[in-house]
Each structure stands twice: as structure tokens, then as C-alpha cells.
Amino acid sequence: MSITVRTAEPRDLNQIAELSDRIFRSRRATHMAEEFPYLYSPDNARHWHVAEDGGHIRSIVGAMIWPAVIAGARTRVASVGSVATDPDYRGQGLASRLLQLAQSGLAAEGVRLMLISGDLPLYRTFGARAIGRVDWYALPPNWAVAGRYTIRPIDPDTDAPIVAHLYQTRSTRFGRTLAELRAMLAAQPITQVEQGSKVALLVLADDVPVSYLILNHRPFRGAGASRLSEWAGDPKSMLYALTQVRDWPEQGMRIPVLPDDLAMQGTLYPLQPVRQEPVSWLAKVIDGAGLASDLAPLWDEVAHEPPRVALTAPDVYAVAMDGQRWTADAATLTEWMFGELVPHRPAPLEDVWPMPSLWPEGLNYI
Ligand SMILES: CC(C)(COP(=O)(O)OP(=O)(O)OC[C@H]1O[C@@H](n2cnc3c(N)ncnc32)[C@H](O)[C@@H]1OP(=O)(O)O)[C@@H](O)C(=O)NCCC(=O)NCCS
Fold first, then answer.
1. Which range of residues forms the domain containing residue 159?
2. What pTM was estimated for this model as a whole?
């Protein structure tokens, strides 16, 4: 057996989609390539890495590159997903090798941070770590929000620019073109509540759009709670729309609130979170020095002398601040920069870190 690991080419996309469906959609009549049109587009082939044996693709790692804004500062991230190996080829290090290859390719394109969907020992060995913190609130079924709003399903074509404007009010977010946003909205399985799937709603006050929401709706018995997946704009109007959703699920509605989401925390007061956990993706800083230079303007505003980050060996960094110096591997640096729930960050770094985490469960989810 002679296995080659390499960057994918456009002609590989059919085999990649076929392997993905076999692994991830074996019990569903849906297709990964239709659900994630940009990820599986032949134009995105160079961000896939594959292991091939005898002309057949046996292992895949997919990625998409995004501009990102973190607390107002611009940087570049990649979301990594559809990690799969043919069952006959597992346990030989193929996925691990593809992740390393993906890291080199992405870093060469200026990506600073990899966000990896899922949490596997394999990802942690690679150097990815849990980051951020999300407080989950349970919205009571009788929660009343005063206000006069109208609600309607989002039309991917005509409403995309409005959704984009509202999303831009978030200071930590992914950058996405209008065409990408349209495709993401259109790829949502359905915008009707009755279908029991994703619900995409626009909320208006006196005909002015004030918020939107994407709800991962599970109205069926035993299906678990519905989860708010993405929203932006005025939190009160968005909560109002949630209370109006038909087929309130047996397990209720869950609302993720990030630490920098002060307006939402205030709107939900006096409710308290029912659960607190890291965000659902692991992350790995793959270019710590580049990330530090992107974010330095932000740190200047909160620290007398912002931290400096230099690469000293592959995936090993020297971090210096206030006359002190620490060595951190990529996993540790990731936790220091983005971990809300980590106990071991050196005290001086607490002035600037953690940074807000990108919320991975919205439309950019891959
Ligand atoms: C998860 C998955 C992609 C791993 O693929 P893989 O090619 O077997 O991955 P690797 O071989 O690199 O690593 C798997 C394990 O084998 C070990 N391994 C790696 N090289 C090895 C070798 N030469 N000999 C023995 N074991 C080895 C790894 O350490 C790893 O162990 P760990 O899980 O305890 O960390 C594969 O199991 C899969 O397709 N699962 C279903 C889809 C899925 O869950 N995808 C992830 C979505 S989040």
C-alpha cells in the first residue's frame, strides 16, 4: 500500500464529497456538499488535504479561510472540519498528517488561527485547545418581552445585505462576502418553523430591521432543546422573536451568551445561566507572531507594554511582557490568548488576555 498525502485539486471534490457523505450522512438523505456549498466548491479545493491510495481518497481534512474581526481588530482564521478517514485506513496517522499539512498550507496563506470543529484526542495531540466561554441561558416558555415588532422569514436574496449590516455591528465576527452570506442563508435547510430545522427570521420595528436570528429548532419530542445559533442587532427584539416561534420545544430554548455580550446579559437579567462551558470548537494558534501583530493595536489600549510574541521553533513561542519572558507551545499560547476557563495564565498577561472568541456555531459552521 503506498499512500500519498497532498493538497486536493478541483477534480478531487467528487470523491471528497462521497467520502464525507459516507462518514457523516450515512443515516440521512442529505448531502454535505449541498449543506456547505463553499467548503465543497472546487474553487476551495486548495484548502482540502487528502490521503490517496490506489487512486481512491481515503482520508480528508477540509478548511475554509475567513477574514475575521476580533474585538475590532482584523486578522485571518480558518475553520477546519469534515475530518474523516475511511474505516479501513484509521489509526495509521492519516488524519494527523493531514492536519499538519493543512496547518502549513493555511499559515502560508496568512492564517493565524485554526478553528477545528469537534473535540477529539487527535486534535489535542495536534495542539488544539478549548477556548472561550459560553454561558447558556434557558429561555422560559412564558418569558414576556414588551415591544411592537414584526417578524418574517429571511429571504436569502433580498435580505442578505440587511443581515450583513446587522452582523457588522458585532465587534468579534467572521468576515464574509455578500455572495457567501447568500449561499449560507440559502443552504439553511428551511426557514419554516414547521419543518423543525433551521429557522432564519428578520425582526423589524416600524418597518426598520433591528435584528435577525438563526435558530437550530428542534420542536420534536425527545429531540432536545432548540439552540440559538447566530443573531445580531438589538437583543430585546431578537428575544421577542424567539418567544413567538411556534412549536416551542419540550426541552425549551437555549441561548448562548458570550462574555463580551453585555447587552444580551442585561436583557436577560435576572435570568442566570444554566450551564457554562468553552465554545464548541477547539482552536490552535498557527502563527502566533502574526496574530500578535494583527491584535497589537488593541492591546495598546489596555496595557502599558503589550505582550510580544516570537516564534522560536516550530509551534514554540517566546512571550514577553513587563520584563518577564515565558516559553509556550502553540497549545499553551492558544489557551493563554483565548481561554476563559484556564487556570495557569501568567498574571501580567491577564491585563490583555483572554481575547474574545469567535462564535463558531453560526452560519459559518462547517
Ligand atoms: C476521527 C478520524 C478522522 C481519525 O482518523 P485517523 O486517520 O484514524 O486518525 P489518526 O490515525 O491520525 O489518529 C487516530 C488515532 O490513532 C493514533 N495513531 C496515529 N498514528 C498511528 C500509528 N501509526 N499507529 C497506531 N496509532 C496511530 C493517533 O494517536 C490517534 O489516537 P487518539 O485518537 O487516541 O488520539 C476517523 O476516526 C473518522 O473518520 N471518524 C469518523 C468521523 C469523525 O468523527 N470525524 C471527526 C469529526 S469532529
1. 135-277
2. 0.93
